[in-house]
User: What shape does this take?
Amino acid sequence: MSSLSRIPSAFRHLPPLVTSLAVALALGACAPEDGADSPADRAADPGASSHADPARTDGVAGPASQPGGATLGTSHAADVAPLIARQVADLAEPASSALIESLGSNLMAAIDRDGAVGAVRFCNVEAMPLRRQIEEEAGLSIKRTSWRVRNPANAPDALDQTALDHFAAATGAPQPWVQSDGGGGYLFYRPLPTGGVCLNCHGAPDQLAEGIPEVLRELYPDDRAVGFSEGELRGLLRVSVPRDALAGAGEGPD
Assistant: This one.
């Protein structure tokens, strides 16, 4: 069965939108930022760019499709047409949900088996292969980034920083956001909030689970992804969508 259609059994009783958000909140500690990306992986990321357009404002693209027919609103940069933003979201949202769900079910198994420390070790070894599986199935590139990263390989590039600035300035509940990648494609950013379970590995020093400080020093000596509070936006999941993947890609935006 494809990972794009798989939902962790622990969440199958929940409505589709609640399922996606529950996994993100409870299991966000294992976003792909925690894996050990190689220089080759970073060089192959088509969404990476050092050129950002600092002059951006928001538009509203309308709801993006969610698994099971639920919807989640998507906003976009001023230079992205609403129709394009909707198409980008319709492609990117299922891929982002599939990755969160795949990581979530595997992380729960690691926690049940080996506790919080085992979960960190799982992320260090297995998060990237799971991400690559979803990328291959979706035909899209996925990245995790944040203001404070655990793996330096996932530090924000200039375009990511523009997205982070957008979310830092936004008011109300954060919505996915779409911007141009500067090369004809688009970048979809999904916010990842901090859930209570996330604090075991990403909270203040007195909230970290037993053994977590030691394993973080061992595996991530440059770790900065701690000190978050429950409900705080912890980072973004980025899905890169090439222009030729969109319906009517040969037509310019209105």
Q: What stands out?
A: Helices lie at 16-27, 39-43, 82-138, 158-169, 199-202, 212-219. Residues 1-71, 249-254 have pLDDT under 50 and may be disordered.
